[in-house]
Amino acid sequence: MSKSLIQFIIEEQRHIPNASGDFTGLLSDIISACKQIAHDVNKGALIGVLGSAGSENIQGETQKKLDIITNEVFIKANEWSGHLAAMASEEMDDIYEIPKQYPRGKYLITFDPLDGSSNIDVNISVGTIFSILRCPEGVTNPTAADFMQPGTKQVCAGYALYGPNTMMVITTGHGVNGFTLDRDVGDFFLTHPDMQIPVDTQEFAINMSNRRYWEEPVQRYIEECVKGKDGGREKNFNMRWVASMVAEIHRILTRGGIFLYPFDNKEAGKAGKLRLMYEANPMSFIVEQAGGVCSTGRERIMELQPTGLHQRVPVIMGSKNEVERVVGYHKGA
Ligand code: AHM
Ligand code: MG
Questions:
Q1: Is the model's pLDDT at 15 over the cut of 80?
Q2: Residue 264: CB within 6 Å of ligand 1?
Q3: Nearest CA to ligand 1 atom 2
Q4: Which amino acid positions bind Mg(2+) 2, per UniProt (predicted)?
Q5: In angstroms, what is the span from residue 145 Cα to ligand 2's centroid?
Q6: Which DSSP helix (H) or strand (E) runs through 34?
Q7: 305-323 pLDDT tens trace
Q8: Interior angle at CA 102, CA 96 and CA 104, nearest 5
Q9: Is 243 in the pocket of ligand 1 (CB under 6 A)?
Q10: Is the CB of 115 under 6 A from ligand 1?
């Protein structure tokens, strides 16, 4: 039988001097949350969780019932055990302080409890994304400012994908490993060791309906992909758009590809759609660890100094040679 996710993490932590077991405990709570979310997503209409909640989040997006339920599940699974000092979620305006009755720990977590939730009512894959940071030394009552750490400071990042199989894919900075949930046993087992993104690809993912809002370098790149061999490229391209970043990045980790949610001028003051702390940074950590490249077009995503919990950034990530080509176009190559 292959390794369980917890066995894998414990063995990985043995190589870290003075590891206290806190991190393993935290991962175990995250796994419990993802198993519960997998259950709720899987039952869907049977337990009455589909549809809109009739509220909006801080970003003005309509919340689904499951956005709220899964946010609550994630918090309840993680607040009690003393591993976290605070949490921040895409679905909450401010940081979540650990309630006074529980001990506070040395980690911070940011998460998107149900990414791609516009897909939930149509029974298409969704996911949970998380990123773990260290709480700054000596801080016992963290504020949002303590979360403003660049992606290079992440201790761990991962996602759960609720698709035909439920999977968890994680990195702690030593490669990327994928685990599949065996529902009969109730545990995740290593099924996709050392995931690697091929450097070349013939598959791109972008929401083409935003085309008129993109900047020139992205217009040029996508135009070339669409024209393929008839437009100056050496190969033809295929396109995919699930509208679930987790599913999209999982496909890229599995068979390569380039994913773009680039800068657009659709709405003043927004630099694209995806959020640095909940989506761009954790996915960048995973993609880079699998040999991919992640950029805004102008900077490496993980080197950005965050300025706000819900900050949006342009995202271009995936197979190295294609991402580097788009970055080159931004430099005027
Ligand atoms: P969400 O966190 O509100 O679900 O939004 C993020 C999702 C990503 O998973 C996906 O890549 C993107 O939004 C899809 O956007 P669009 O609706 O433009 O296709
Ligand atoms: Mg999201």
A1: no
A2: no
A3: 115
A4: 112, 115, 279
A5: 21
A6: helix 22-43
A7: 999 999 999 999 999 999 9
A8: 70
A9: yes
A10: yes
**5-192: CATH, from 3.60.150.10, 3.30.540.10, 1.10.3720.10, 3.20.20.190:** 3.30.540.10
CATH value of 203-332 in 3.40.50.2300, 2.40.30.10, 3.30.930.10, 3.40.190.80? 3.40.190.80
- Please state the domain extents for the chain: 5-192, 203-332
At 59-108, the pLDDT tens digits run 777 788 899 999 999 999 999 999 999 999 999 999 999 999 999 999 99
Q: How many CA atoms lie less than 13 Å away from 277 in the CB half-sphere?
A: 27
What pLDDT, in 10s, does the model give residues 122-155? 999 999 999 999 999 999 899 999 999 999 999 9
* Residue 284: its H or E element: helix 281-289
What's this model's pTM, rounded to 2 decimal places?
0.96
| CA 328 vs CA 211, 224, 317: distances in Å | 20, 14, 14
Which is the closest atom of ligand 1 to the Cα of 274?
A: 6
| Contact indicator for 271, 105 with CB cutoff of 8 Å | no
In this structure, the residue with its CA closest to atom 17 of ligand 1 is 243
Distance 142 CA to ligand 2 centre (A): 24
